[in-house]
Amino acid sequence: MKYIEKLASIRQEMKEKGVDAYIIPSSDPHISEYLPDRYKCIAWTSGFNGSAGTLAITQDFAGLWTDSRYFVQAAEQLEGTGFELVKLQVQGRAEYATWLAKNLEKGNTVAFDGNLASVAVAQAVKNELEPLGINVNGHLDLLDPIWEGRPDLPKDKAYLIDEKTTGQSTTDKIAAIKNILKDKRTDTHFVSSLDDLAWILNIRGNDVNCNPVVLGFLMIQGDKNTLFIQDGKLSAADIATLNAAGVEVADYSKAFDVVKGISTERILLDPKKTCFAIYDSVPEGVKIVEDMNPSTALKAIKNEVEIEHTRNAMVKDGVALTKFFKWVEENVSSGNLSEISIAEKLQELRASSEGFVDISFDTIAGYREHGALPHYKATDSSNSTLKPEGLLLVDSGGQYTDGTTDITRVISLGNITAEEKKDYTIVLKGTIEGSQAVFPKGTKGYSIDAITRRPIWETFRNYGHGTGHGVGFFLNVHEGPQVFNMAAIDIPVEEGMITSIEPGLYREGEYGIRIENLVLSKAVESNQFGEFMEFENLTICYIATDLVDKSLLDNKHVEWLNNYNAWVFEKLSPKLDENEKAWLKEKTKAI
């Protein structure tokens, strides 16, 4: 069925159900960023396969609301589908609800599937529309009746990882959560988000591409804890281990019924990580405490075991990247390299490392103008052949049993312009400024964002995405609650957090530049003025110097770059053969 035919079928379903507008979020019952195939509803409906967006459909208009990361991609993918791109002014805001408020009338009905909308999204829609007399139905799935061959839920096995890897037992993690619940005078907590569940229970799986998670829900209630998971996903031994940790195992499909039948005074639900269908299943009389999952904050603070494992994973990742960039440089003139083939080669090199499980997200290998698309993924139709000229941007990462990596580098393939060098050097200054930041305890992410952007703003340049995101431990590559962006989010940067620093510059139709490292927040000084923190660089991969215009750097930037590259050589050279070592020695030579 073509996209235009799917849109017509949805509109027919709307007519039959008395619906004037239908909303399709990019989500699943766990409010995941990356989705199992069964819940890739926006991609199936419209052809847009970005990780963020919302469709809103009326009888005379169908739009995709998405942010600046996807403007070019969305415009291309929506062509001929019947859907139009609507550019979000503020990332994450429910601007489609405002549009519906202006274009619908009192008595009209708006519907969405409550399994796919978070409580926060549902409330935003309701708050915008219901005061205008517009009806909102949050329990209507119009896709399932017309989705022929819709994928089933994944059936891959899940497994437990031990305390030697995680540094903390499931029993201790649940106890820490219950202490927080006690402070909130709440004895019941329902966890929907897959990375929270994975962290709490030290469980991993393969239900979502690139994210080592398993579909499930977790109820923490008094002395009883229940994992709802598909039958057959866990071995008898793993079930016994969970039972010993005070966790019962029940069928995945029973979660909603259990929520409907709870008899407790108060239940804690995270409105950003709980679907509306679960929220609306809570019986009347039970007070819903809307708050962030306690595990989200606990998970963000990596313990010493996780940190040491992550440092080890970074060495393996750095070795793979060194071999990769050497291979690209030596083979680009053959005319046989493409964006897809180099992504495959990088995955192959990572896979040769001990403990490699998967890539941590789809590799972004953007040659020339494709580098200007922050979330580009090469397809058969877009796949560019590399030539010995221009810029190549590679944003990639790995999932290892001892950590998660995420790194972006830009290299020259030849014949670089003065403007490209200037842009590269300006972005590098931003990366260095952010990496060198020293800041008081309690500093929020927007301050780190501003520190990183300052040398870019000074040249009247900017970029449309955030400066950094949290990263999990052998978990999701995008992890909260901390974020480095311009929004006034009241989450402090705390000791033990792992976060990316990734400023960029993008010239549409020409090239893109982004230089990304992961950093660890650490305490550095305590005196009469308070406690201060700094960052430890975790990512170990050379930063190209042949693209640097040294005249644009201060001495502190040159010193940082030379010290960083020297450290990269020191850490990686023992793992390389003589040819690779000589190549890296040249790449890390001081400027």
Automatic annotation (TrEMBL):
Q: What is its EC number?
A: 3.4.11.-
Q: Does the keyword Hydrolase apply?
A: yes
Keyword annotations of the record: Aminopeptidase, Hydrolase, Metal-binding, Protease
Source species, domain of life: Bacteria
Q: Boundaries of each Creatinase N-terminal domain copy?
A: 7-130
Root EC class:
hydrolase
Q: In the UniProt record, does the keyword Transmembrane occur?
A: no
| Peptidase M24 C-terminal domain sequence ranges | 531-591
Record's InterPro entries?
Answer: Creatin/AminoP/Spt16_N (IPR029149), Creatinase/aminopeptidase-like (IPR036005), Creatinase_N (IPR000587), Pept_M24 (IPR000994), Pept_M24B (IPR033740), Peptidase_M24_C (IPR032416), X-Pro_aminopeptidase_P (IPR050422)
Q: Which GO terms describe its molecular function?
A: aminopeptidase activity
| Domain Peptidase M24: residue ranges | 309-520
List the PANTHER family: XAA-PRO AMINOPEPTIDASE 1 (PTHR43763)
Which family does the record assign? Belongs to the peptidase M24B family.
Q: What is this protein called?
A: Aminopeptidase P family protein
Q: Which organism is it from?
A: Sphingobacterium daejeonense
